[in-house]
Amino acid sequence: MTLENMTKPNLLLTPGPTQVPPEILRVMAEPIFHHRTPQYRALFKSISEDFKAVFRTDERVYVFTGSGTLAMEAAVANFCSAGDQVLVLEAGKFGERWHAIAESYGLNVISLKAGYGEVVTPPEVDDALKKHPTVSVVYATLCETSTGALFDIEAIGRVVLKMGAILVVDAISGLAADRLEMDAWGVDVVVSGSQKGLMLPPGLSFLAVSEKARTLNRKAKCPRFYLDLANYERALRNWDAPFTPAISLMCGLREVLNRILETGIEGVWDQAARLAEKTRTEVRKLGLDLFARRPSNAVTAVKVPQGLDGGRLVSVIRDEKGVTLAGGQGEMKGKIFRIAHFGAITARDIDRAISVLAETIRELKP
Amino acid sequence: MTLENMTKPNLLLTPGPTQVPPEILRVMAEPIFHHRTPQYRALFKSISEDFKAVFRTDERVYVFTGSGTLAMEAAVANFCSAGDQVLVLEAGKFGERWHAIAESYGLNVISLKAGYGEVVTPPEVDDALKKHPTVSVVYATLCETSTGALFDIEAIGRVVLKMGAILVVDAISGLAADRLEMDAWGVDVVVSGSQKGLMLPPGLSFLAVSEKARTLNRKAKCPRFYLDLANYERALRNWDAPFTPAISLMCGLREVLNRILETGIEGVWDQAARLAEKTRTEVRKLGLDLFARRPSNAVTAVKVPQGLDGGRLVSVIRDEKGVTLAGGQGEMKGKIFRIAHFGAITARDIDRAISVLAETIRELKP
């Protein structure tokens, strides 16, 4: 371990949590204030308004105190009743999470699966919906964080719109990294979280909800309270939160939105696209293979070279070289590693990751 | 508004969020690290172990990313099935919240009510349980934050233990303020949150769960996912979190626990008791009436003097004098105001509150 590694915090290049810029950390370290005040309502109102440019929607964006999975569950419990038929697109750990949540609420889950590293295609969704015309909700993923694969949400949106179901998209890692046009693509519900492209610590999650989905919400009978949209909707009339919000994270979010709006969301997508392209190019130059066939701009998954222990590769890079990459999750454990390139990550960060990666592979090669 | 008020943040004396000590804010502003690492597991393990001294239990304490209400819902969804008969003790807004959550899960709620400012007594609980011997869970509150009333949980514990139900206690504002002996008093489940006696920003909530409650958990059929104890139990085996935890708050919590253990939980209770007694004495000296007959050491509720507008009193003190007190909630709106005395609040803070209170009452008196 070099002196730099001992004294500096690790360079964090995991697909969430991601690096939080120092000036955002400073804002969150300001003394706390109470949330039943004009000060908090003004903060929440301005966040709600500016979120529209990030989600590309004119619809409401609800804010939950909780991790991304809480907002995923909100997207199940708020739009379904036990026994409802829903279609889940699965090609990795987070598609599987949609399935697990839907099952825990007693839904009738129709599962469309693709292999890890692949995506479910729009024609497959079309076929499934024609075969099961009573499907009320389609659960999809923008960037499947576990594999770095990007679903074609625009085309899936066209297919779902024809059939009358609502389309729910997990954009937890995809938001502010991969292009997502909620209103223009006919996406009804977008789920996201604070600790990815929005470069905050974990603790907030978000749900953007269309008018069509809100109508469905009023008929949905799954039991719910903390994540019940009716509670948030009532509070929103006065720019209030129904339950004590994570105030320090909300203050950080205000600063993050200032930064994103300064660049513009198109500029943020371009930046992620450039870094993703750079990462893919550099990885290939090292003779390594990319894992996802249709890669996301949020995170790049790379196959662990044959003969190498993937777990050891990631832990040596983390503990001895000062760079935290992500290993594979679930059945991908030891087989891939992942490099994120959203939020505050820079080209210099990617250069450092590639350099320690090359060095470590040389050292560990049998 | 004085110069001091314009340049300094408000003195926060609300019953949550409460003041966060500057050194805790600094710890939370350190660069973030990843949670699937030995570093996070060591942090979580040490927090889990030290929590036992705060909850006075040898049982598990589960940590959720979310507000206190999420952990309240976890204490319903994890121990009940639709149609179960439960007993809810209600004497304010947060007792009513137990009722609302239980109803949203289709439970058969038996409600024992006392007026605002009062408490439900142990003999009343005894009678109700004898009348309804199939009650499986009793939902109670340590400090009813909306009125500042303290329930006699020790005696209620003895009553419930005889009947075989489990006892769940909302100690969101009571923990680390009012004495609570989870194991010795036979409390099965304790709910708490980060932004009260634990002097952190909002965003974490906690559930301490007895062996008896965990047995009940395995039979409970309410649908759940994000707050399902089975997910947390599995992850706990490796000191992992099932879903991305609020890492910066966990780092803050580590520091808070260091402070609390240094003083000892008995010392923390004594400090809150002294400040509560001081607050009650000073308030009475101003000729004001206390609201709760059995007052908590977490928060003191005071009746708004006749002829005064309670809402205006609180907003003038907040906006012109730099001290944030809490007004009344729900049906208590405008009728009471509340002063907290837990966490990092000092005698000097109470002096300042009493002084601006006296001054403002003089100014506003007709």
Keywords for this structure?
homodimer, alpha/beta, Aspartate Aminotransferase, domain 1, Aspartate Aminotransferase, domain 2, 366 residues, 14 strands
Task: Reconstruct the topology from this structure.
2 copies of one chain form a homodimer.
Chain A: H1 3-7, E1 11-12, H2 22-28, H3 38-55, E2 60-65, H4 68-77, E3 85-90, H5 93-104, E4 108-113, H6 122-131, E5 137-141, E6 143-144, E7 149-150, H7 153-163, E8 166-170, E9 189-193, E10 204-209, H8 211-217, H9 229-236, H10 247-263, H11 265-285, E11 299-303, H12 310-321, E12 323-324, E13 326-327, E14 336-340, H13 347-364
Parallel strand pairs in A: 1-12, 3-4, 3-5, 5-8, 8-9
Antiparallel strand pairs in A: 2-10, 6-7, 9-10, 11-14, 13-14
Helix pairs in contact in A: 2-10, 3-10, 4-5, 6-7, 11-13, 12-13
Report on the architecture of this protein.
Two copies of one chain form a homodimer. Helix content of chain A is 43%, strand content 16%. Chain A is an alpha/beta fold and 366 residues long. Chain A has two domains: 3-20 and 264-364, Aspartate Aminotransferase, domain 1 (Alpha-Beta Complex), CATH 3.90.1150; 22-262, 3-Layer(aba) Sandwich (Aspartate Aminotransferase, domain 2). In chain A, the strands form four sheets. Chain A has a seven-stranded mixed beta sheet, with helices on both faces. A three-stranded antiparallel beta sheet of chain A has the order 11-14-13, with helices on one face. In chain A, strands 1-12 form a two-stranded parallel sheet. In chain A, helix 5 links the parallel strand 3 and strand 4 (108-113). The radius of gyration of chain A is 21 Å and the shape is globular. At the A-B interface, helix 2, helix 4, helix 5, helix 10 and strand 13 of A face helix 2, helix 4, helix 5, helix 10 and strand 13 of B.
